Amino acid sequence: MVKILTAREMKEIDSKATSEYGIPSLILMENAGIRTVEVIEDLLESSQSKKVVVLAGKGNNGGDGLVVARHLMNAGIHVDVFLLAGSDEMTPDSYTNYQILSRMSRNIFPLQVEEGLDRLMLALLSCDLIVDAIYGIGFQGQMNDFDSQIVRMVNWSKAVVVAVDIPSGVEADSGRVHGEAIRASHTVSFALPKIGLLLEPGKDYVGTLSVADISIPAPLLQDKNLKTSLISEAMVMYWLGPRHPESHKGTFGHALLIGASPGLSGAVIMAAGAALKSGAGLVTAAVPESLLGVVDAGWMEIMSSPLAESKQGTIALEALPLIEGLLGRASACAIGPGMSRFPEAPAILHSVLKKAGIPILIDADGLNALAEDLNILKDHQVPVVLTPHPGEMARLTGKNIEEIQSNRIAVAREFAQQWGVTLVLKGNKTLIASATGEIFLNITGNPGMATAGSGDVLCGLIVGLMAQGLRPLDASIAGVYLHGLAGDRAAGIKGQRGLLAGDILNSLPDIMQQFER
Ligand SMILES: NC(=O)C1=CN([C@@H]2O[C@H](COP(=O)(O)OP(=O)(O)OC[C@H]3O[C@@H](n4cnc5c(N)ncnc54)[C@H](O)[C@@H]3O)[C@@H](O)[C@H]2O)[C@@H](O)CC1
Ligand SMILES: [K+]
């Protein structure tokens, strides 16, 4: 499993490497510098003159930059070092490296002097490569005007920019950028990727990302207390192997979908299609009776069940006994797609959660019903998966969308832990929070997938995988990953603008097939 780290987790790892294993922090800094130099030397191979500018800040990131400068000088490369802070502000390890470098070279220039920026400008004009060691993972918030001016000069330059650990100005935990930040062509991050390198807007500043071993002892990087992971192909492969030759349709479960209302029957059809294509053995759509024909026409392969309906054509409370019977025959259920909002919806949802003996996924209008009364969740005995987009998450939490989007991991984790559910927070880089506080970040998918019905496909995919016996958390992780891959494949054929949810659905079998090897 690929772990990704917050700044605090990385700092704890660094300090344990020193306190528990006795690796001096200067060695970690030396390794960080050497590994960055390896990347730089590859990049400089084709350039004739080989001139480098190193920008070093006051923290340990600046110290890494000073190590880089020393090794490049030793390799015969012309290096100009510019210091954003006085030596009295440097951390102890940075100061040690500053002293060593001062004995080796005169090309170390303070920037906070009158001619500082002019000299930098000249150096930037003639260099091939710039090393950004201004700020690392210790940075938060916004740079001051002076630093911002330097960042703008770097971003304006035509030289290749290599960021040490993280582009300066990007927040390591969130990827947020509040003012200026270095636009790197390459970023060399240490030990494990930091979360902010993978999330927009930070991700857009990273360029090509490499992750370098700086000799942190492996057990520290595999610690089970590291709670954030990147979803990988290997994880999904593990759950979706080849099928046993003796299997029959009963082996692959029975997915039940409850939803639809006049004008919104397509949502259940999309979800049913995804459940079928996920490999579920049987799929039943339970919909208001007047919509039965429409939904039946959607797929020949599904079964359907007519539910008693209100005057408005939405599911009526009288449908509950039939729903209870259906729940008894299914192996997983999704409630909500196209269900619409109506006064009885919370009571229907509540009853489903109380009666069910199978995992329940709540999506779309099911989530809106839940937002009316979150206490409904108190009664659940079975695993519950929620799949909100940021707007639905806002209704569930009472927070506004901006609060949610700027704090996706923390908001999702808190909710999932508080209510004991698996929470799939959709959006750019959908993430899954487990009831135990783990986070799984997905990086498949593209903006073309922000289209009507895309969420219904995801809902069907996850419930279909749950019906086949995947744990709800695993089904959510696999579903989100496969949904993104199918969307990427569909975008490759149709482009992002013309992409429809049906195209995601049509790409699913090819994607699923890759996992049957
Ligand atoms: N043992 C370690 O801790 C190691 C650290 N390493 C490097 O050290 C970096 C982390 O070092 P530091 O924790 O010293 O942090 P930084 O080098 O990122 O420096 C942050 C400094 O800027 C200040 N700061 C934060 N936000 C600011 C803002 N908006 N405006 C102005 N100043 C701001 C902080 O208070 C701190 O003094 C890593 O990114 C990595 O490059 C590596 O050398 C490997 C070993
Ligand atoms: K940096």
TrEMBL record:
Functional note: Catalyzes the epimerization of the S- and R-forms of NAD(P)HX, a damaged form of NAD(P)H that is a result of enzymatic or heat-dependent hydration. This is a prerequisite for the S-specific NAD(P)H-hydrate dehydratase to allow the repair of both epimers of NAD(P)HX.
Reaction(s) this enzyme catalyzes, per UniProt: (6S)-NADHX + ADP = AMP + phosphate + NADH + H(+); (6R)-NADPHX = (6S)-NADPHX; (6S)-NADPHX + ADP = AMP + phosphate + NADPH + H(+); (6R)-NADHX = (6S)-NADHX
Listed EC numbers: 4.2.1.136, 5.1.99.6
Keyword Endoplasmic reticulum: no
Gene Ontology biological process: metabolite repair; nicotinamide nucleotide metabolic process
Superkingdom field: Bacteria
Subunit description: Homotetramer.
Keyword NADP: yes
Cofactor: K(+); Mg(2+)
Co-factor binding comment: Binds 1 potassium ion per subunit.
Residues engaged in binding (6S)-NADPHX: 60-64, 136-142, 165, 267, 338, 389, 456
Residues that hold AMP according to the record: K426, G427, N428, K429, T430, G455
The gene coding this protein: nnrD
Domain YjeF C-terminal: residue ranges: 232-515
GO molecular function annotation: ADP-dependent NAD(P)H-hydrate dehydratase activity; ATP binding; metal ion binding; NAD(P)HX epimerase activity
Species lineage: Bacteria, Bacillati, Bacillota, Clostridia, Eubacteriales
YjeF N-terminal domain ranges (all copies): 10-222
Assigned keywords, A-Z: ATP-binding, Isomerase, Lyase, Metal-binding, Multifunctional enzyme, NAD, NADP, Nucleotide-binding, Potassium
Family to which this protein belongs: In the C-terminal section; belongs to the NnrD/CARKD family.
PANTHER family linked: ATP-DEPENDENT (S)-NAD(P)H-HYDRATE DEHYDRATASE, ATP-DEPENDENT (S)-NAD(P)H-HYDRATE DEHYDRATASE FAMILY MEMBER
Protein name, as recorded: Bifunctional NAD(P)H-hydrate repair enzyme
Pfam family, one: Carb_kinase
Binding-site positions, K(+): N61, D132, S168
